[in-house]
Specification:
Number of domains: 2
Shape: elongated
Radius of gyration: 21 Å
CATH architecture of the largest domain: 3-Layer(aba) Sandwich
Structural class: alpha/beta
CATH superfamily of the largest domain: Response regulator
CATH class of the largest domain: Alpha Beta
Distance between the termini: 39 Å
Helix content: 25-40%
Number of helices: 13
């Protein structure tokens, strides 16, 4: 599959109106190249899977007529300035009045002001940074949970471990390495506050290099200083680099918590090193949630794997992308209109159960109805839901 300076599916010909004939065009600047390409493609597959399902089951019904969905994509090259430029191109030149989000909080942060400026509603699935929802945006809506919910569980588990051996949580030594993007920086800020509440000691607090290709400097310090917990956040490229170098350098920290485990396929590529990793996830396929379009969470998961057999564990990025498209269908039908502000108000009023979880938007546009989950990678590569300290395989059972 080749991606040039722009990339689109299902749309050809001259500039498009928001609704042309029986087709509703959603626009998305998405990362098909650059450091976010892996998750950009996971996102695109989730969008397209939902579009295909909706179109094959009657489409979107507005004003007594049935419409098909299509998505016009451009490759933002994982570059915020490019993303903003392409968002404006979609709206101003291509006539797109309804947007799907990009991948990552940083890209969403670049694009949200553009959609806001032109009064174009955007439903996004991949920008979790809490700071996105403190700007007063009226046209931005997110189906996913925000960053403050990602990794507190790992710190609580570290505290519980100390208590279980008769020590104080304040005896915990913490090492951290984060990408300098809005998503990871928001996670870090919340964790620093929690770590301070426990009186834990942060002995390493590093920023990952911009290309996310090497964290050996951090891991050398980890080996020397022997923290009780190592926390890493650098999207899929950062997770892959961390897992690879943890394996190469034989790092054996009792608790390792890391974002983007599934999307980086650390359980497949580095099975020994990744055993015991704690991985926050927006969605799990065995939750008790369902909807009329996709069925249960397990059914969506099975159907997606059938369409994309290259996945052994489906990354949550694909699931939430499908959920975002499904919310668009419900909003169009509730609005019974293609007027941007009428549709925007319909999105704001959405309250629905989906295979991905419940969706209800707060006044700031974030989803206030869905929790995060924490899973631990087992020795067989399985992802096991963690509900309490008793569920953990502690310390990490890794042979070096």
């Amino acid at each position: 599959m080749c991606f040039g300076s722009f990339y689109h599916f299902g749309v050809t010909g001259p500039a498009l109106a928001k609704v042309e004939g029986d087709t509703i065009t959603l626009g998305s600047a998405l990362s098909f190249t650059g450091k976010y390409a892996t998750n950009g493609i996971h996102t695109q597959r989730g969008y397209d899977f939902a579009v295909d399902r909706i179109n094959s089951t009657g489409g979107v019904k507005v004003g007594g007529k049935s419409y098909k969905l299509t998505v016009k994509y451009y490759d933002d090259e994982s570059t915020p300035a490019r993303g903003a430029q392409l968002a404006e191109r979609l709206i101003q030149q291509d006539g797109v009045d309804f947007m799907l989000g990009p991948y990552s909080s940083g890209m969403t942060k670049a694009i949200a002001p553009v959609s806001e400026k032109f009064g174009v509603p955007m439903i996004e699935a991949e920008g979790a940074s809490r700071s996105l929802f403190t700007q007063g945006y009226k046209y931005l809506f997110a189906v996913l949970s925000t960053t403050d919910l990602y990794l507190p569980g790992s710190v609580h588990f570290a505290a519980d471990q100390k208590k279980s051996i008769g020590k104080s949580p304040s005896d915990t030594k913490v090492a951290m390495a984060f990408e300098g993007d809005p998503f990871s920086m928001d996670i870090r800020a919340g964790l620093v506050d929690l770590i301070k509440e426990y009186g834990m000691k942060i002995i390493i607090d590093d920023q990952l290099p911009a290309d996310l290709s090497d964290m050996s400097t951090t891991l050398t310090k980890v080996k020397a200083l022997k923290p009780d917990i190592l926390i890493v956040s650098g999207h899929s490229k950062g997770a892959a680099t961390a897992a690879r170098q943890i394996d190469e350098m034989k790092i054996n920290v009792p608790i390792i918590a890391m974002t983007h485990c599934e999307s980086a396929k650390v359980h497949e590529k580095f099975p020994n090193a990744s055993t015991g990793f704690l991985c926050p996830t927006q969605w799990v396929p065995d939750i008790d949630k369902k909807d009329p379009m996709f069925g249960t969470a397990a059914q969506w998961n099975a159907d997606f794997i059938k369409a994309h057999p290259e996945y052994s564990s489906v990354p949550y990025q694909s699931a939430q992308a499908s959920a975002a498209v499904y919310v668009w269908k419900e909003a169009f039908e509730a609005a019974n209109s293609f007027d941007k502000d009428t549709v925007r108000d319909a999105i704001a009023g959405v309250e629905m159960e989906t295979f991905y979880g419940d969706v209800k938007f707060g006044p700031d546009g974030n989803n206030i109805a869905k929790p995060m989950f924490l899973r631990q990678i087992g020795a067989d590569g399985s992802y096991n839901l963690v509900g309490s300290f008793a569920d953990l395989a502690y310390p990490r059972n890794v042979k070096y």
